[in-house]
Specification:
By secondary structure, the chain is an alpha+beta fold. The chain contains 38 helices and 35 strands. The protein has a 9-stranded mixed β-sheet, sandwiched between helices. It has a 9-stranded antiparallel β-sheet with strand order 17-16-28-27-26-25-24-23-22, with helices on both faces. Helix 3 (56-68) packs antiparallel against helix 4, helix 17 packs parallel to helix 25 and helix 27 runs antiparallel to helix 32. The chain is elongated and about 130 Å long. The two termini are 31 Å apart.
Length: 1126
């Protein structure tokens, strides 16, 4: 049997038997569970340790630990390495486990959703993860689609279903589907717009295409129920296939640190080699003198001694790569992540959604963003359409003016129009200009004809479950907003048949005969209906793009056209989506002849489309202009201001959307990304590779003058992303201030991000709210998910999430900048203090016969990074800020140093090493000279190794603490406590470990008996400490003072301004500036072709079943005819 064959390794074709799990089982299709987690209970420890030891430094310290266990070369105890190594491994493992537990919880939440599955003839509630390929499932209104389904039937006429595909492409669509049987189809793939398969029912085979499929990630809308057959589940669904692979993201600073660690290893090898050669020379010249009382072990000569010395110094000088560095980095990142989680200014109370740092490893990268890739629907916009303004017979309505005639800004407190006089009005509809209602109610013919057109010229399908409760099922939200506006102004669309439309006109029921629907398409950019009024009058109503409608107006409309154009320009300047409305009275004889020719064209075998277009052009002439509508695709709060501030920070924003070109352009203008004063907006819409190349080459020169924008369509982008054109695309796009890509697929979004990442070497951020954005969120360095109306798929795949696009400004300009600043300060200081610590060892080797003796006490070496200097640097790295959050937001230019890597780079690292080298020379030779041949006040000699070690380590600790104080801009009580507490801890621990009691208890462990009390009571010791501190700090202070005076940075200028002013005044609320559009049409209509034919076909009026029969209806080898006829 075909269905008993084993599944091939590479699936080439999928065979599915509906509602028959035993026959589908041998194919071992993926179940419907999704897994985004990395570990399970058994794999966590080995896999996590494997990942951690892939980090070069961890592997290095493991090798170091092994070396320390060899007595011949170990000059330090094993615990000096094993304690910090265990600490860093444990902390990292705990953090990774916490992150993965959150992923498990998210997966569990999705996998445990319930859905009705038809099993043994009964509907049973099952978890999503238990759904299998071949199952028949029932979805209800507002439910998420469980898996990729072949739709069988629905509660709607003609088996129509209304599907919100905003998760996939940011739009709403209507799908027409048919019942199914045994299925053969394509294997799993990521092509959202294509599906190929065949359906076999009773021996007959039918073709299946994408119109018959519902994809996981969609939401069922305005449809009571539907049944579907699972064709792809879980990881095989097109949504998950399009999501891209989860990659382990590291920051650019991580990458730089890996390079620096390799360089440090090389530098360490050079230092150890120099000291090993020195040991060999010393053994030959001086070592023979000591053989009499310190005989060498058998077989040990000068060469072998040098070999052992090399490895001994590898152990001693290992602090150039301190393992505590990685512990501290993880703590700092965790702390800065908590700041994001706790930030009340990024909390959205309406949906009770706080900001969330879903990863703790990328914070400082937020301070280096150069490119932002944003979705449109649900990210920049609220996905809500509102009827805002209109122009009727040369007068504009929708604005609110005061008694002086001045325009008043509309806010939430502005009084709204009262529609209680209209019993059928939509209570959610809001309008602020009462004069329009008064005009309509007074019986103005132009106004009533205007709203009559909106009530008749559309493809909306109504649903009236109870008397007066109307629900409009609109194919596009634009059309729904227009029909709802007509409803509230007294022209209520109630019902339709293929031949008629019934509306309520100012309380009177009127039925119009529907004679023809001249459908919308992207070329016509308009739609018309021809109706006959109850009085027998024939009227053509038309709505469409103003540029298209104007070409077809009667000459008598010239004056009205000019007035309406000025209104349209105002609306376009406000970023509203506009349509022009017109009508035409028709003659009965002409209409009869036109309908005959229309019927002939409709049934023609050849040239049907061309003949219909000619007829449409013929009748849509000499139209009379009524006015224009202005619909707002509502932006999220603060979007234009956020984009403006990010642009000032030299961050480039590219919009990647699945919407149509006109819609995307309209939002571009509304967001101020596209502006009237731009030199040129390039439109790339060619359908060939050569055509795309020619359009891209319009920007010829790198040194282009003026401001440009690029708008490119999805089909053109497909050519532009090919190997031979991608660099031309990148060059052109980077010359433009704004880039908008329309009609792009999720895969293309990811490809655009990868293109910029690969060639520009810039840090990228992708932000979106739907499943169609997951691939680019994963591809970008930083992925941000908006917790919106489009589900949680984007949030689950993101690194950071919040509820509103405007919070991105605070995330980058405040948290990102602070995190980058703190991390860079931390790294510079950490390398400084550890190189200084290590270089003192290096200089001391020349005075100890290269014997690998340590210059410090062994306990000081162990505690230096873990106790004495750990908390002060953490305090600085968690709390420091050059300016507060308000100054950071009001001066976006402060963000630019992060983009240019000014605070930490290879140059900064070299400067840090040179500074450390200078400090180490001071910290070794000043104490050495001060102690040389020195005696106590009582004449006793104190020139001994232990006293010198104590003085050297005390000078070092105080010098690096002063350096940290110089680096700290923002002092808090915590910083003060950490600095003074660490110094106090050092002296307390030192006096305790050097006491008689500790020596008597642990003689071999604490040999420095009495050193502290004998040395630190001498004035010359404290004078030496003071001298070294001044000599270490003085050049730093002088250098920084000179830089600020002669070459001040933007940070220096703002900080100088901060000292003069207490706080910047909050930005005043600017009233909206009236912008007049002169260069474009504000037309944007997210409608699709084909619905005119649908509403006039009669098929949508098929009778609904009174009862859903499921018992035994889908049992056996295929689908029964009962369900197929539903």
């Amino acid at each position: 049997s075909l269905f008993m064959m084993s599944l091939p390794v590479q699936e080439e074709e999928r065979y599915i038997h509906a509602n028959n799990r035993p026959l589908n089982l041998p194919y071992q299709y993926a179940d419907n569970a999704i897994r985004t987690s990395k570990y399970n209970v058994f794999s966590f420890l080995p896999l996590n340790l494997f990942e951690q030891f892939q980090r070069l430094a961890n592997a290095y310290f493991l090798v170091l630990l092994i070396l320390q266990l060899i007595p011949e070369i170990s000059s330090l105890s094993w615990f000096t390495t094993v304690v910090p190594l265990l600490l860093v491994l444990t902390m990292t493992a705990v953090k990774d486990a916490s992150d993965d537990i959150n992923r498990h919880r998210s997966d569990k939440q999705v996998n445990n959703r319930r859905v009705d599955v038809l099993i043994d003839g009964e509907l049973r509630s099952e978890k999503w993860m238990n759904v299998q390929v071949g199952d028949v499932i029932k979805l209800e209104n507002n439910q998420f689609v469980t898996a990729d389904l072949l739709l069988l039937t629905s509660s709607e006429p003609l088996n129509l279903v209304y599907i919100e595909t905003a998760e996939l492409d940011g739009t709403f669509i209507l799908k027409c589907v048919f019942p199914t049987g045994e299925v053969r189809c394509e294997p799993p793939n990521n092509r959202l717009d294509k599906f190929k398969g065949t359906l076999t029912v009773n021996g007959q085979t039918y073709a299946l295409d994408n119109d018959k499929v519902l994809l996981r990630g969609c939401t069922l809308r305005n449809t009571e129920w539907c049944f579907g057959l699972v064709v792809f589940g879980g990881p095989d669904t097109k949504l998950m296939q399009s999501s891209g692979k989860t990659v382990f993201k590291r920051t650019s600073i991580d990458g730089l640190m890996n390079v620096l660690v390799l360089c440090i290893f090389g530098f360490l090898a050079v230092m150890c080699s120099i000291l090993a050669v020195g040991n060999a020379i010393w053994e030959v010249r001086e070592g023979s003198v000591f053989i009499a009382f310190l005989p060498r072990p058998n077989g040990v000569n000068a060469g072998f001694s040098a070999f052992l010395t090399f490895w001994s110094y590898v152990i001693i000088l290992n602090t150039v790569v301190p393992i505590s560095l990685y512990v501290s980095v993880e703590i700092i990142r965790l702390g800065n992540s908590f700041y994001i989680d706790w930030d009340r200014k990024m909390y959205y109370p309406k949906s009770d959604t706080p900001a969330q740092a879903r990863t703790t490893t990328l914070n400082e990268e937020l301070g280096q963003i150069k490119y932002i890739f944003s979705d449109k629907t649900g990210t920049l916009t609220q996905n809500i359409m509102t009827f805002n303004k209109c122009s009727i017979n040369g007068k504009s309505y929708g604005e609110v003016v005061d008694f002086t005639g001045q325009r008043v800004e509309i806010t939430d407190k502005t009084q709204t129009v009262d529609f209680t006089w209209n019993e059928l009005a939509d209570p959610k509809f809001v309008f602020h200009d009462p004069s329009l209602v008064e005009l309509v109610r007074e019986g103005d013919l132009a106004a009533q004809h205007f709203f009559r057109l909106l009530a008749l010229c559309h493809t909306v399908m109504p649903e009236e479950k109870t008397e007066g409760e109307l629900y409009y099922q609109a194919q596009s939200p634009d059309e729904g907003a227009l029909v709802t506006a007509a409803r509230n102004f007294g022209f209520v669309f109630r019902s339709r048949t293929p031949e008629s439309i019934r509306i309520m006109e100012m309380g009177q029921e009127v039925t119009y005969d529907l004679l023809a629907v001249l459908d919308f398409n992207n070329v016509r950019k308009r739609m018309s209906v021809i109706v006959r009024s109850p009085k027998g009058k024939l009227i053509l109503f038309c709505k469409g793009a103003d540029t298209i409608v104007y070409e077809r107006l009667h000459p008598s409309c010239l004056k009205l056209k000019d007035t309406t154009t000025s209104h349209l320009n105002e609306y376009a300047g406000d970023g509203l989506r506009t349509l022009a409305l017109a009508y035409k009275d028709l003659d009965d004889d002409y209409m009869e002849d036109w309908r005959r020719r229309h019927h002939e064209a409709n049934i023609a075998m050849d040239g049907k489309e061309e003949r219909l277009d000619e007829l449409y052009e013929e009748i849509e002439k000499d139209l009379m202009l009524l006015g224009a509508t202005a619909v707002e695709d509502k932006l999220q709060d603060g979007v234009p201001q956020t984009i403006e501030q990010l642009a000032k920070a030299d961050i480039k924003i590219w919009v990647l959307t699945g919407d149509k070109q006109e819609t995307a352009e309209n939002i571009g203008y509304a967001c101020n990304m596209l502006r009237e004063d731009m030199t040129e907006v390039f439109i790339v819409a060619a359908n060939t590779a050569e055509g795309v190349r020619e359009e891209l080459e319009k920007v010829e020169d790198e040194a282009v003058n003026g401001e440009y924008a690029l708008v490119i369509n999805g089909h053109s982008l497909a050519y532009a992303l090919e190997k031979d054109l991608e660099l031309e695309l990148l060059r052109t796009a980077c010359m433009c201030q704004t880039v908008i890509c329309c009609r792009v697929t999720p895969l293309q979004k990811a490809q655009v991000v990868e293109l910029v990442k690969h060639y520009k070497q810039a840090v990228t951020l992708a932000i979106g709210d739907g499943a169609n954005d997951v691939s680019m969120i994963k591809a970008a360095h930083i992925g941000v998910g908006i917790s919106g109306q489009e589900g949680m798929q984007a949030v689950l795949s993101s690194d950071y999430s919040f509820a509103q696009f405007r919070y991105l400004q605070r995330l980058l300009l405040v948290h990102g900048r602070w995190s980058y600043l703190r991390m860079c300060k931390f790294l510079r200081y950490f390398f400084y203090k550890n190189f200084t610590f290590t270089f003192v060892h290096f200089w001391y080797a020349f005075f100890c016969g290269f014997s690998a003796q340590t210059v410090y006490d062994e306990w000081f070496i162990t505690l230096y990074n873990l106790v004495y200097t750990a908390l002060p640097v953490l305090g600085m790295s968690l709390f420091d800020q050059d300016v507060n959050d308000r100054w950071s937001s009001q001066h976006p230019q402060l963000y630019s140093p992060g983009q240019l890597n000014l605070y930490f780079s290879k140059k900064a690292f070299v400067r840090c090493m040179m500074h450390s080298c200078y400090s180490s020379l001071i910290l070794f030779f000043i104490p050495w000279a001060a102690m040389y041949d020195t005696v106590r006040d009582d004449g006793k000699d104190i020139v001994d190794y232990q006293s010198f070690a104590l003085l050297a380590q005390t000078c070092l600790l105080i010098a690096v603490t002063i350096q940290l104080s110089l680096d700290t801009h923002y002092w808090t009580a915590v910083n003060q406590f950490f600095v003074w507490g660490s110094l106090s801890a050092y002296f307390a621990i030192t006096f305790t470990m050097y006491s008689n009691g500790m020596f008597l208890i642990f003689t071999s462990t604490f040999p420095f008996i009495g050193t502290a009390r004998n040395s630190l009571n001498q004035p010359n010791v404290w004078l030496t400490i003071l001298l070294t501190s001044i000599l270490c700090a003085l050049p730093v202070v002088a250098y920084r003072f000179t830089l600020i005076q002669l070459w001040p940075t933007i940070n220096d200028k703002v900080r100088h301004k901060v000292r003069k002013e207490a706080l910047p005044a909050p930005a005043p609320r600017r009233p909206p500036v009236r912008r007049i559009s002169t260069r474009r049409s504000g037309y944007a209509f997210s409608h699709a072709q084909g619905y005119g034919e649908l509403v006039t076909s009669g098929r949508f009026l098929l009778r609904r079943p009174q009862k859903i029969r499921t018992k035994s209806s889908l049992m056996g080898s295929g689908l029964s005819s009962r369900l197929m006829c539903l």
